[in-house]
Amino acid sequence: MTGETQDKTGASLSKHDFPNRVRAFCVHIFTASGAMLAFLSLTAAINQEMGLAFIWLGVALVVDGIDGTFARAWAVKKYAPQLSGDVLDLVVDYTTYVFVPAVILLMSGIHDHRLLAVLGAVIVGSAALYFASNTMKTDDHWFRGFPATWNLVVFLLLAIEPPVVVTVLIVIAAAIGQASSFVFVHPVRVKMLRPLTLTLMVVWSAAGIWAIAQDMKPDVLTQWVLGLIGAYFVGLGLLRKGK
Predict the structure, then answer these.
(1) Of 122, 143, 147, 206, which has fewest CB within 10 angstroms of its CB?
(2) What pLDDT, on the 0 to 100 scale, is given for residue 1?
């Protein structure tokens, strides 16, 4: 049919839909930019610029937080079905939430390099299995098991620099937690205590920015704020009712 193409589902797309298709592909490019930001974070970590490394990961986190909104608003599945946004999102998320943070931990020098290499291997291996899970979310939007937000775990480890035994226990507990049935809060979508959770998320983010401004050597008060609010997010699952 002249002037028409077909998408992957067989539906006809008119030549008048060209602007919509361009816009939809731009959303895919926007999502893929998270991988580019991850690479910039990686290069900063290699150069021992840990604050800059986390800045790039923070920007990638923002991209991940808003690209889905654009995808739904601009009907990406309809106008750009040649690419799977779900697969692309998983690839980028694994890179930014898992792989690059593991390298940052390795390059941080907070403990023996060989030990950090082993911990990094535990992180990337266990998270690979978690990302293949088909039961990652509950019906009421909690994460089932630790949601592999290793970027936040590594950030805390570098900001607080706990003793080596504590570091090892945290990494092992989080790795095992990925395969557990314990639930972790989604700070935006979970309704329970959402105003408090969102408020603490803002405070934690501000403390995190302050830690980066101090070149990941924050003062004791900032360390306590980061640690206590982090404990709140972990412990909130104990208050969830139902399954």
Answers:
(1) 206
(2) 37
Task: Give the list of residues 6+ apart from residue 110 with CB closer than 8 angstroms, or none.
Answer: 116, 157, 158, 161, 167
Q: How many other C-beta atoms lie within 10 A of the C-beta of residue 240?
A: 16
Q: What is the pLDDT of residues 170-204, one digit of tens each?
A: 999 999 999 888 888 887 777 888 899 899 999 99
Q: Write the CA distances from 111 to 10, 160, 163, 165, integer angstroms.
A: 56, 13, 9, 10
Q: Percentage of the chain surpassing pLDDT 90? A: 54
Alpha carbon distance 142, 191 (integer Å): 10
List, in order of start, the domains of the chain with CATH numbers: 15-238 (1.20.120)
Q: Which residues contact 229 (CB under 8 A, 6 or more apart)?
A: 200, 203, 204, 207
Regions of the chain with pLDDT less than 70:
1-16, 241-243
Please count the other Cβ atoms lying within 10 Å of the Cβ belonging to residue 158.
22
Helix (H) or strand (E) holding 13: strand 12-14
